[in-house]
């Protein structure tokens, strides 16, 4: 499974000059946890996350303590450029899900921009991967069969069984070694298929 098969697109983006409060509303309205920051030319210059936006937004509430609370200076971060992360970790559309998962876990991040050259073409998140893994096996089986029939409308034909995202493909008619290889690749394009096996 490749990033392009499960990523979210089109992409919601913000500008370095946008206010922190505006971007908070953008994340809330779109139910996302981070958003790429693009400059006037459309170049990726940063990413801003929930964590970035939360820093300094709340004053201590005096009701939470019996002792007087020390005063805190007002936050000077009013624009995205003041809080965004400038060193952005990215992936491409052809990054595979295994590599992506390792990256998300090792870097302890929730989502990443997907880039093609200098352009942001999508966002991919842990939530996207969980959604793919949560798809029912019967839906995966139907999608695999449909994809195989689209590629090979005149045959051969396959029996497909999916258990916990693992697709087992068995040819019933006229299969060649090349058909077998292509069938495995096609099955992997279905979001939620984590492995393809052959019986025996």
TrEMBL record:
InterPro entries: CBS_dom (IPR000644), CBS_dom_sf (IPR046342), Diverse_CBS-Domain (IPR051257), UCP036990_CBS_BON (IPR017080). Residues 59-78 are annotated as: Disordered. Coiled coil: none annotated. It holds the Pfam family CBS. Keywords: CBS domain. Residues 7-63, 84-140 form the CBS domain. This is CBS domain-containing protein.
